[in-house]
Amino acid sequence: MTDQKPKSSAQTLKKSNPTARRKPAARRRTAYSKAELEEIFRRFSIQRPEPKGELEHVNPFTLVVAVALSAQATDAGVNKATRALFKVADTPEKMLALGEEKVREYIKTIGLFRNKAKNVIALSQKLVDDFGSIVPRTREELVTLPGVGRKTANVVMSMAFGIPTMAVDTHILRIGNRIKLAPGKTPDEIEDTLMQIVPKQYLFHAHHWLILHGRYCCKARKPECERCVIADICKSPEKTVDVPAPLVELPQQMIGVSE
After folding, report:
1. How far, in Å, CA of 175 to CA of 216, rounded?
2. pLDDT per residue as tens digits for the range 178-195
3. Which candidate, 100, 61, 33, places its Cα nearest to that of 235?
4. pLDDT band at 240 (very low <50, low <70, confident <90, very high)
5. Could you give the domains of the chain?
6. Which of 15, 116, 129, 169 is catalytic?
7. With a threshold of 0.90, does the pTM exceed it?
8. One of 75, 151, 180, 200 is an active-site residue; which one?
């Protein structure tokens, strides 16, 4: 029998004290100071006071369907297909009555339309069976619907129910990394960072501002820095200008950028 060394007090504390085993909280990963973040989103709020998503819908159900259909497709392309669809099927029951084959006909111009039609029918059935035909308000419930992931759930929570979320799409993923606002390899990483760093008073509209900024200004192929309202604050190595010609009315004295 071998002698065992007595455990040190530090080892004993580590086992007996749960807090000693916790990993340190993740640091907020952004290249911007608190004052810079305030100014970035203040300018976005002046540029687009009431930003709106560009997917057309008439109620929470049609919004869920539209966002699910928008994966790997443009909003304009989805709208073109769903205008006629939603005129005849704006509830789960009507969508089920329409049937998968007819849904396919309506959305056949959208990429992956066969699988998406199957999901639309399946999510409609689940809404009827499990939720009394009512679109649920929580992320945990929304992601149980076929074809609905975290991003879709976040969009629905924000646009249908007014719950502040950060729906990270390809535009926000690009901006988060390009301008070093919220660097990350995955949408979840970027979402977590943005939810921490975006000033609370701007959080509700923040994901729309970032999406629209990426769609119309900080474009994938070539950012239009000369039109950018935050070019003088931006820390992107791709930036082509230092000071923008402001598209919004800015104060004569800028907010300081030191913490």
Report:
1. 12
2. 999 999 999 999 999 999
3. 33
4. confident
5. 34-51+166-227 (1.10.1670.10), 60-161 (1.10.340.30)
6. 169
7. no
8. 151
DSSP calls for 163-231 = -------HHHHHHHHHTSSS--SSHHHHHHHHHHHS-GGGHHHHHHHHHHHHHHTS-SSS--GGG-TTT
Rounded-to-integer distance, Cα 99 and Cα 210, Å: 37
Task: Establish whether 151 is a catalytic residue.
Answer: yes
Rounded-to-integer distance, Cα 239 and Cα 223, Å: 8
| C-beta of residue 104 within 8 angstroms of C-beta of residue 114 | yes
Q: Alpha-carbon distance 252 to 259, whole Å? A: 20
Catalytic status, residue 129: no
